[in-house]
Amino acid sequence: MADVAHFREQLNQAIVAADIVKFFDVLLTISVEMGASDIHIEPFEHYARVRLRVDGILEELVQYPRNLHDSVISKFKIESGQMRPDEKRLPQDARVSTITQTSKEIDLRANTLPTVRWEKLCMRIVDKSKKIPPLEVLGIEGNNNKILYSWINLPNGIILTTWPTGSWKTTTLYSAISQINTVDVNITTFEDPVENKMFGLNQSQVRADIWFTFASGLRSALRQDPDIILVWEIRDHETLDMGMEAAMTGHLVFSTIHTNSAAETLTRIINLGAKWFMIAGSFNLIMAQRLVRRCCDLCSVKVNVKDHPHYERTKACFGSMDREALKQEIIMRGISPAQWTEYINEGWVTQGSGKDLHTWWVCSKCGGSWMKGRLGIYEVLDFTDDIKDLIVAEKSAMELERYALAHGLVSLERDAVLKLIKGVMPMDEIYSTVKHKSG
Ligand SMILES: [Zn+2]
Q1: What CATH number should be reported for the domain holding residue 151?
Q2: What integer pLDDT is reported at residue 137 of this predicted model?
């Protein structure tokens, strides 16, 4: 990481000199170097402030005098080439590609919004220099990882993922696809928007305004001799139906749908009009995902969470799980027997994977918060023969989930607790992102 302190100094100089071009140059560079996903420039009565969203949390970077604000906004509008500087009453959008002072290529999606004071500017940053991390680094571990790898290497079926917005949907899907992106397969994608151009893929941007929809894209994809098709989102019966058809005629289909858990997804696709036997015949797996904060990997701290209000819950979630499956899961994740028993019996957990336990110095990576970066938690529902039988018998999503939980499903909650015991995520994150399900 480049020297952020040096750039902060430059940012302050740009403000003092009212040099708006330099201000944006340095601001974008700092934001990318700090790993920020969004920049907010907000006007108040006497000053404006700049905040960055880093690891999902907003923090203030700098303030500047109110009288600079008009120049900041109008300069941005002009430079973007897509906004009208004289229009201050309506929201405006722009997409800009640029390069930071540290030579990183970025895309910005910017929006101005008139507020009761003045206009606010918000920018979403897509850092194109960022490599797509492997599935393991994102947090797909243990049996979840095994199931996902086994299905993406088969030639047909649907891999359906589900998650709230802003939780690495793009990253996880690209990461999975990059595992199978080889010269001997034709991969066609329909996206909205295309955020990342990947070598070897035929990527199309859908345009609902001119009827180039996910469904019509899928239809034409089938005439393009595809092996693998990615349809960004299933929103309607037509897309779902064609996706299932494609899967049953020898294609591997990736897609996403908006629900809360893997089991809930079944209810949603039934509501979209899918027939039970079609689901059993075409689905490989359903995967749910959430994003949480990750413990620092440079330092670590040993804490006791026995008095934490969620401690008993975290233990209860393994209640119904097949003992042998649980044992295998713990081994696959590299959790030692000592780590496991210390947590279950006494509530001790070591957060962070740094080698030394330090309480007296401030860690340079996390600033003493013991947290740095983000991590995914996952739930992968494998369409085994047992599960398919239950689906053909039209069992409810709840019954299906209960069966899967008893037979080794690593739910979002179980995945989170295993990650807590391993020391890669903190206790407070678990139930702020997942629902507790008894046993
Ligand atoms: Zn640290």
Answers
A1: 3.40.50.300
A2: 86
